[in-house]
Amino acid sequence: MGGDGAEFTLPDGMSIRALPKVSLHDHLDGGLRPDTVLELAAEIGLELPADNATALAAWFAEQSDSGSLVEYLKTFQVTTAVLQTRQGLMRAAHEFVLDLADDGVLYGEVRWAPEQHLTRGLTLDETVEAVQEGLEAGVDEVRASGRIIRVGQLLAAMRHAGDGREIAELALRHRGRGVVGFDIAGPEDGFPPSLQQPAFDLLRDALMPCTVHAGEAAGLDSIRSALVDARALRLGHGVRIAEDLEVEALPDGEPGGFVTLGPLAQWVKDRRIPLELSPSSNLQTGAIAQWGQTLDAHPFDILYQLGFTVTVNTDNRLQSRTSLTRELSLLADTFDYTIEDLQDFQQQAAEAAFLPVEDREELADLIAEGFASAIAHGAAR
After folding, report:
1. 196-209, pLDDT tens digit by residue?
2. Where are the domains of the chain?
3. Catalytic: which of 129, 216, 276, 351?
4. CATH number of 21-245+256-380
5. Neighbours of 263 (CB within 10 A)
6. In angstroms, what CA-CA distances link 365 with 344, 361, 368?
7. The sheet that has 150-158: what strands, in order across it?
8. Which part of the chain is the Adenosine deaminase domain (predicted)?
9. What are the tens digits of pLDDT across the range 61-112?
10. I need a labelling partner for 134 at 20 to 30 A (CA). Which of 140, 220, 222, 349 fits?
């Protein structure tokens, strides 16, 4: 299907980009445009590994394709470096919204770590206000063009940098003013959610929703801690919940088989805890290495077929050279998904959004209408 500039279609020729979408796991500092990185770096005198947008985009993709989350995260030393000013944050947030809208996104949650943007004198509150101003400018521009989009902030505490309480307090201060939830990010292995217990206790008492990066670079214990200690309503990635599945193949290579769910997997499935799966990123960071090195080895399909609440996400569009359209296209190609399957993924993401139930229902209606229109249009061709 080529690069992200291609017009991704289903086998019947229906455009995937035109379909309404929900984006739940998308990092601000992983969603910059390469030319924006170049321009912001020039303003602060930052030397980059490439001097043009094409070469810089290739550098990010190559550096990210290491099979290691730790190595993957090193690319963010560049993107966070250019996001240390109010104008830089505003511009990145503004363009973030425009790029989501161009990809057919109706609702998006942008996650980022304010504590990583303080080296040029901004306070934590000023960083959040700058991002919110940029997001609102983007939303206004999208709506002026006759389209619909809504965006909320997820504030992330870096899991290796303390107990997270300061960022939890920050999220609560800006609740109702753009912030819709809390997350922890950074190196997962060795830094379980329980280390941020003070933050999660505070958020629990304030009834602030949380999603937690878990089940990416660490396994079932990390997922259990996210659910039990952090009381996460969603799992950021969560792909390694598949370690709690026992698959018994049929003899002689016959298709099919039997799957037994362990207690943690059963809990996640039965409680419909959403998995924020990011297929391309999961390949790059080695999150699915135990199952294989290609997308057809990703547990996405078995989790979907078993009835888990799966959502499709980009994680970092710059590092993975991707978009939601591309991720959906790759999945459709790999697992022969239909437009009805793609609609399922969007409806499950809409239900998982950190929005009031009335707004989630409205979003679900917009998705249903958009898919119905696309199907009718395709049938009429």
Report:
1. 999 999 999 999 99
2. 21-245+256-380
3. 216
4. 3.20.20.140
5. 10
6. 13, 6, 5
7. 21-27, 105-112, 150-158, 179-185
8. 20-369
9. 888 887 777 787 788 999 999 999 999 999 999 999 999 999 999 999 999 9
10. 349
